[in-house]
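chain below, 142 aa
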Amino acid sequence: MTYVRGKRIKPSEFLNKPFEEITVQELKELNEKIRKMMQKEIDEAVKVYGKKPYDWKSFFQNFSKKMKFFPYFLPFGWPLLFAELESQKLDKKGTKKPLKISYKMFFSTLWKSPIILCYYIPILGWIPLLIKGYNKKALTKK
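prediction:
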């Protein structure tokens, strides 16, 4: 998939007065102007990339080259990756080391944080995650 990022838009540059003095009508006009700019950029991107938005051949070539990073480069591996990054952040206390991704990390992360398995259980998995999240919020308020 090709991701296209548009140019930065600073709405304050379109208006010559402070925010407090802007009327609702001026905000609506600004909204329409920005929407048209963004739509124009999207239309241009579709002309360039729209013929082949998914390049499956390239995906599978990269997939085979990066097998040592499996499953972390696919969405279902992200909870494991985020948990490992979080544990390193908490353990290292400010020292930054490169993340060493391996199959061993997969199992060690699951061993350290079995709650991650709840991310893979539809709807019922939310219950333990919510309980854990609310418990952390209660602890931080004290």
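Residues 11-49 form one domain. DSSP finds five helices and no strands in the chain.
thats it, cya
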